[in-house]
Amino acid sequence: MAVGIAPSTSENSAKYNGRITWFVVLSSMVAATGGIIFGYDIGISGGVISMEPFLKKFFPDVYNKMKQVSKISNYCIFDSQLLTSFTSSLYIAGLIASFFASPITRTFGRRPSILIGGVAFLIGSSLGGAASNIYMLLLGRVLLGVGVGFANQAVPLYLSEMAPPKYRGSFNIAFQLCVGIGVLSASLLNYGVEKIKGGWGWRISLAMAAAPASFLTLGALFLPETANSLIQHGKDHQKAKQILQRVRGTLDVQTELDDLIKASDKSKTVKHPFKQIIKRKYRPQLVMSIAIPFFQQVTGINVISFYAPILFQTIGLGASASLLSAVVTGVVGTSATFLALLIVDKVGRRAMFSSGGITMFISQMLIGGIMAAKLGDQGALSKGYGLLVLILVCIYVAGFSLSWGPLGWLVPSEIFPLEIRSAAQSITVAVGLIFTFIIAQTFLVMLCHLKSGIFFFFGGWVAIMTAFVYLLLPETRNLPIENMEQIWRDHWFWKRFVCDEQDYEKSET
């Protein structure tokens, strides 16, 4: 048996009755729209900051540097802290909002947090599209960040709790699939509006986030609360049972309901989940709530997601060609994520993490090598090498979209017991947003100074995280959330930290 693999869990998921119903599919589709907006806001920023009319209006210093390419290094044209603040302000706002989202999600349920996120997205996109100065532009991004903080806190939990255990991976990956659809939609729109005469196409790009935001906001008004949340917030077990029956498409849900009630009763003994999660028995969950979102960000994917058009301009493509190349990578990422949705509950999490990590590492090493050997501070790659870099970027995006992209959201949402779930998810979201902000704010500086070495930097982290998963992450495929603690007791490393309640109480005295 390979290191860290848990025993087969198919017998655990088989004890629950139910099937995939239209009720749960439609509810999950509405909730997952939050991923479309998140992806759209990621993808749209890299496109608009490569448009000359946008730069001329809000970032004239960068625009002037673009006109002096013969005097400035390819890698340093877009090096501007004010420019990166346009991208990164969304994520620092999301970080702060996530700490407010955690108690709201825990106290009032998943649906209110989704609704708040939708409203914030709607207002933020309206401000961005109508911006007349840098302050209005940044305020719109901050409000979008509030939406990200609430949506990323609640939507993955909602999807994991609504889905049948056997198909939980596929349902949760729907969030990442929606993120990919959002990125692709943004890339397509940027490519189209860049050609609008008059230079106001960027307004359409920023404002169109209001379309999915409206759908999410209105849909959230009709979303049912999850059975887990209903049981956690009241004693009306009958209502929770009715929801569970509708979600599962069967009247025989007593076994699952009993497990939910048992988990809820245990969670109610915990008054301060943030104090609880630092205790020894929750050490595996605490480590994963920090490590997984951290590793997801240092894969280097945000180099592509945020700045793909800028990256392609760096290797010598024109503005329109750069935007088209971003569309190509968006198509590849979305297609690979859809494939991940189909195979995750068959192949398992660990195998996908490992294969994706190897793919990303090799492609990043090759991209860095080509740029180091063939791209100087001025000029451009030849057409052949430029096409090769684009292909390698697509391979890298496919590797990410089959592994750390969807699984970085899925695994944290399914490994936390109910009593610490909202706190742990809050930590996961916060860590992800902290490092998203750091990378978004520093990437253009890093690109200017590290040049092609930026790909070796992120490739090194990919090697480390692949080893981490192989050694320390057990398989969670098909295991009900309420029985997830067993995987840590069976794991070669984590079992030393996890003890049963009796041993735990003795250790506290």
Automatic annotation (TrEMBL):
The gene is LOC107789142. This is Hexose carrier protein HEX6. Residues 27-477 form the Major facilitator superfamily (MFS) profile domain. One of its GO terms (cellular component) is membrane. It is found in: Membrane. The chain crosses the membrane at residues 20-40, 82-102, 114-136, 142-159, 171-192, 204-223, 286-310, 322-344, 351-373, 385-411, 423-447, 453-473. It comes from the Eukaryota. It is a multi-pass membrane protein. One of its GO terms (molecular function) is monosaccharide transmembrane transporter activity. Its main location: membrane.
